[in-house]
Design brief:
A five-stranded antiparallel β-sheet has the order 1-2-3-5-4, with helices on one face. Helix content is about 20%, strand content about 20%. The protein contains two helices and five strands. The protein binds guanosine-5'-monophosphate (5GP).
């Protein structure tokens, strides 16, 4: 199966600005930022999309949230950021390797529900 761009970044076949990495995930800067800070949190496990996660992925998904909490603190954006997961082509997903967008420095109120 052909590797996604994110798998190539994880495998160091494609360069990327890596902000954080551990055994379970990688955090990189988005190549086409939609906000002053636009990061992608990518699990190393090649899950295609959120709707394909299994109960066994519970710890991994929790871990991603902890990493988001820690990295946003490090960047001093802990009081103002949005996270988004695009699930499926119709919802705007373009890379079919699960990832969480972290967006900060832009006010998206009125765009996201709430
Ligand atoms: P999606 O639309 O699937 O939710 O998000 C994919 C994201 O990956 C987009 O925001 C896009 O800009 C980003 N992206 C695509 N190719 C690359 C790449 O080669 N490097 C990095 N750092 N980001 C990428």
């Amino acid at each position: 199966m052909t590797k996604t761009i994110f798998q190539k970044i994880i495998d160091r076949e494609v360069p990327s600005k890596i902000l954080f990495e551990d055994d379970k995930c990688i955090v990189i800067e988005d190549i086409a930022p939609k906000a002053p800070i636009h990061l992608l949190v990518i699990p190393k496990k090649p899950i295609k999309k959120l709707s394909e996660v299994k109960p066994g992925d519970k710890n991994l998904l929790g871990h991603l949230m902890i990493v988001i909490s820690e990295i946003t603190k490090e960047l001093n954006i802990e009081d103002a950021f949005n996270i988004i997961i695009n699930n499926g082509k119709e919802a705007g997903q373009t890379v079919f390797h699960l990832h969480i967008h972290i967006l900060a420095g832009k006010n998206f109120s009125g765009f996201f529900p709430g």
